[in-house]
Design brief:
single chain; alpha+beta; OB fold (Dihydrolipoamide Acetyltransferase, E2P); 1 helix; 5 strands; elongated
Length: 114
């Protein structure tokens, strides 16, 4: 097989793979977390709630979120960019549940203002 044909096949496979991943990621939806205590460490979750407290240190944001079920959970967001959220914003957070000092918190992958 010549190099040009191999290059075309690899580019087509890469483009097809990216398109497949895009549509697959749209179809996969995390279930919204109902109760913080029901979750397992390492489990991916999605929560919605209002920011009640916000503190920033270096490249880390700590958000206290009052969920729709009137529970408070801390979300940790590692970022190198400036984030434009404030106390009182209603947000959706996607991340993983982790236990730290005996309390559950979310290591955030994304925070979106709703």
């Amino acid at each position: 097989m010549n190099e040009k044909m191999l290059l075309k096949i690899s580019l087509a496979a890469a483009i097809f793979g990216l398109i497949f991943l895009f549509f697959y990621s749209e179809a996969v939806d995390l279930e919204q977390l109902k109760h913080v205590d029901d979750s397992i460490s390492g489990q991916s979750v999605k929560i919605r709630g209002t920011i009640t407290k916000l503190s920033a240190q270096e490249k880390v944001l700590f958000l206290d979120i009052l969920t729709d079920q009137q529970e408070t959970i801390t979300a940790v967001l590692f970022t190198s960019e400036e984030v434009f959220i404030k106390v009182g914003d209603y947000v959706e957070i996607v991340g993983e549940i982790e236990e730290y000092n005996g309390e559950k918190e979310i290591l955030s992958n994304s925070v979106r203002i709703i």
